[in-house]
Amino acid sequence: MPANITNQTTSANVAGKAPSVSSNGHGGLIVGGEAYGGQDNLAKYEKAADAHPSDAHAQIQAGISAYVNGDMQKAIRYYKKAISDDPKNVIPYNNLGNVYYRGLKQPKEALQYYQKATQVDPSYGFGWLNLGLCELDLGDKSAAKAAFQQGLSKVSKSDPLYKSFQDNLKKLS
Length: 173
Hints:
Blueprint: E1 5-6, E2 21-23, E3 29-31, H1 39-51, H2 56-68, H3 72-85, H4 90-103, H5 107-120, H6 125-137, H7 141-154, H8 162-172
Antiparallel strand pairs: 1-3, 2-3
Helix pairs in contact: 1-2, 2-3, 2-4, 3-4, 4-5, 4-6, 5-6, 6-7, 7-8
């Protein structure tokens, strides 16, 4: 599964390596981010994406590298291409939301992508967490609370994010 960008931690297994955490400088931490950073890595992922234009995974990898390297417009392009190639893949919706929310500081634009991520895969914890956090930043505490409650009802109790939903709900009470 490709890396997933969130504000604190993510689920990733990059090329079978043990995940390591790196900051992208845009308010997000990326598990396995070192594999995507630097212009050489960006060029490698872009080359793969260009060679396989219908491969959503290749597009996502290039999007992650663009994001890690601070090129938000490229990241948007790659994630949108991945969505076009595989509209049932939750990762590009979530990561596109993160580009707008964390990278470009446009939470209103990000909201639709987090909402779509939760529709595509209701059990995807990062979609609910990011949706709730985005709603909080937009000042809608009731919508944030609803997102965290949905996360609790849709995500397995064994999911590492389950406690985050509980903690965020306590803060809102």
